Amino acid sequence: MRHESSKSLFKYWDRIRAGRKAPRREEIEPSDIRQLLGDTFILDISGSMRTISYRLAGTRLCAAYGQELKGVAFLVPWEEKDCFELTSAVAKVYRDGIPQIICSIANTDSGKQVEFETLLLPLKAIDGNNHRILGLSSPGKTPFWLGAEPLTYNSVKSIRPALPPKVIGFSDASLAPELNTADTLENIRPNNDQSYGTERKVKHLTVHDGGKQ
């Protein structure tokens, strides 16, 4: 994952699933990810109807495509040659619980292009035949024309499993991973009297800070 919004949603999803394969839909609290909502969406996968469609889509995403995406088939804007690979990626998410990252180029009819990163995360199945996916799709850089001239088709650059981002420099408290109660700040804070070569207690372990030995 390269985009900060993708990293933020992944960290939030990973925290609320609490070690499970996937969280439940009702555990997603919109107010916790309010700054990401414009780019987020939820997919409905119907096993009986063999369809993948948008159940919900954020305002920025809808504006980028110039239409309300609710109820629209997920594969509609994608080039035909990419649809098999996309369907396989979606199956890996809801069937195997493996998050996926799709890097793509979105195009307008006039030839304008913008690169998007799309994150797909599994949600706990409603039943054995219906599944949902939490997703986010955001541009690397937002061109001035995005939202004024609609995107009409996408082409895949790459699809790969989404690796957990490093929890470094993550300042948003509403999305930050929760500390275990045993790992309080008192337990993990270094000794302020020494800036190097200190030791500290983390649970039952003694951790020594320092460079190469």
What is this structure, in a nutshell?
The protein is an alpha+beta fold.
Walkthrough of the structure:
With 213 residues, the chain is of the alpha+beta class. The chain has 2 domains: 4-161, Beta-Lactamase (2-Layer Sandwich), CATH 3.30.450.20; 179-213, no CATH class. 18% of the residues lie in helices and 28% in strands. It is built from 4 helices and 8 strands, in the order αββααββββαββ. The protein has helices at 4-17, 59-65, 83-96, 185-188, and strands spanning 40-46, 51-57, 100-107, 113-122, 130-139, 153-161, 199-202, 205-208. The strands form 2 sheets. It has a 6-stranded antiparallel β-sheet, sandwiched between helices. Strand 4 (113-122) and strand 5 (130-139) form a beta hairpin. The longest helix is centred in the N-terminal third of the chain and has 14 residues, at 4-17. The two termini are 33 Å apart. Mean pLDDT is 81; it is low at 167-213.
Poorly predicted residue ranges: 167-213
Classification by helices and strands: alpha+beta
β-strand percent reads 25-35%
Rg (CA only): 20 Å
CATH fold annotation of the largest domain: Beta-Lactamase
Q: How many beta-strand elements? A: 8
Written as H for each helix and E for each strand, in order along the chain, the element string is HEEHHEEEEHEE
Q: What is the share of helical residues?
A: 10-25%
| Overall average residue pLDDT | 81
CATH architecture designation of the largest domain: 2-Layer Sandwich
By CATH's scheme, which homologous superfamily of the largest domain applies?
A: PAS domain
Termini gap? 33 Å
Major sheet: size, sense and barrel closure?
Answer: 6 strands, antiparallel
CATH top-level class of the largest domain: Alpha Beta
Strand order of the largest sheet: 2-1-5-4-3-6
How many helices? The count is 4
The figure for the number of domains is 2
The gross shape turns out to be globular
